[in-house]
Design a protein that fits this description.
The structure is a single chain. The chain has 328 residues and is mostly helical. The chain is 66% helix and 2% strand. The protein has a two-stranded antiparallel sheet with strand order 1-2. Strand 1 and strand 2 form a beta hairpin. The radius of gyration is 21 Å and the shape is globular. The protein starts with a helix and ends with a helix. Bound molecules: Phenylacetyl coenzyme A.
């Protein structure tokens, strides 16, 4: 699939003869599986692609705290609350590793955050949907973290050293997150009829947005070919989306829930599930800022940034004092 992704995009990519000797040597290192480190020479396009993807990924982690934060004060038991708080804290940590990885490419965290706050930078479409019931917290862990793992496991082997290393730890934590989500769904599905209905409702609302997390179809994905050639992407969007469906449908069956797709069926010939068409108009509307919660999410992030100004100022003042004391 990786070879196919590179091949299909080959017409759009520059041929070897168009590359400078330095670019050719870089591509050879990538093809040989050598990790690229911050001080290595790299084409400007490679650096920009990584800054774009890693920073969007970082933004997704911190904006992704917000839908779950909605339930921190309303978790049904003390244990569930402690677990949820730990998970939300993990997401902040993932954001920090990722901003640090992006900084190794010569961008500042302040600039990246300014791009998020101005609405210029993207973050994952999934976090623009509301969390209406406790079951949504289960569905996020199960479906959203589940999808994030499928997308991120290959990133542990991507060509850029700091990103690949950050992903190893992130994936370990995401795997715990997915299990806790499934555990919530299991408890609800084994509970009262009302609780099971809540779980079904959450699945109904989160299923399609979760499939959209993997990005546009391969035919529409503008960045895939180049990212595959640079081994930033090791699998295509559609390939990972199919993996998510194949993995998740049996889990839904085990829960006794129905995936909200009348066209979903097992295809004996392909060995995969066939599934219905994704509403790409909805996906693009969310990307343009017209999802149910886009405005609220950005407003909350900007407010948090402004509220934290005094703390950042205090940290800088403290560091300056330490430096001047050491110099004296
Ligand atoms: N939402 O040509 P492609 C998580 C954009 S972390 C918004 O296919 P690419 C953990 C894309 O940026 C979730 N925008 O692009 C968690 C591009 O626009 P641009 C985040 C999207 O980069 C759980 C344009 O569409 N994970 O969930 C989306 O090759 C629970 C064309 O698309 C990552 O970021 C989307 N869904 O492939 C946290 C993983 N899809 O930039 C809290 C790393 C596409 O040219 C709670 N990222 N776009 O203006 C990736 O693997 C890739 O960037 C893709 C997109 C696969 C997301």
């Amino acid at each position: 699939m990786y070879a196919q992704l590179v091949e299909t995009g080959a017409q759009r990519l520059r041929g070897v003869d168009e590359m400078s000797a330095q670019e050719q040597a870089f591509q050879q290192r990538i093809d040989a599986g050598v990790k690229i480190e911050p001080k290595d020479w790299m084409p400007e396009g490679y650096r920009k692609t990584l800054v774009r993807q890693i920073s969007q990924h970082a933004h997704s982690e911190i904006v992704g705290q917000l839908p779950e934060g909605n339930w921190a004060t309303r978790a049904p038991t003390l244990l569930r609350k402690a677990i949820l708080l730990a998970k939300i804290q993990d997401e902040a940590g993932h954001g920090l590793y990722l901003y640090s990885a992006a900084e190794t490419l010569g961008v500042s965290r302040d600039d990246l955050l300014a791009a998020l706050h101005s609405g210029k930078a993207k973050y994952s479409s999934i976090f623009n949907y509301p969390t209406l019931s406790w079951a949504d917290i289960g569905a996020i862990g199960w479906l959203v973290d589940g999808s994030a793992i499928i997308n991120q496991i290959p990133l542990c082997r991507c060509s850029y050293g700091p990103y690949s290393r950050a992903m190893i730890r992130v994936c370990k934590e995401e795997s715990f997150h997915a299990r806790q989500g499934y555990d919530i769904m299991l408890a609800l599905c084994r509970g009262s009829a009302e609780q099971k209905a809540m779980a079904q409702d959450a699945l109904n609302r989160w299923w399609w947005p979760s499939l959209m997390m993997f990005g546009p179809s391969d035919a529409e994905s503008v960045n895939s070919a180049q990212s595959a050639a640079w081994r930033i992407k090791l699998h295509s969007n559609d390939e990972l989306r199919q993996k998510m469906v194949d993995q998740t449908v049996p889990q839904a069956e085990h829960l006794g829930l129905t995936v909200p797709d009348p066209e979903l069926r097992w295809n004996e010939a392909t060995g995969h599930y066939d599934f219905g068409a994704i509403d790409w108009a909805e996906f693009h509307a969310v990307l343009k800022g017209h999802g149910p919660c886009n405005r609220e999410r950005l407003r909350t992030r900007v407010q948090a940034w402004e509220d934290g100004q005094w703390f950042r100022d205090a940290l800088v003042a403290h560091a300056e004092k330490q430096t001047s004391r050491a110099a004296a």
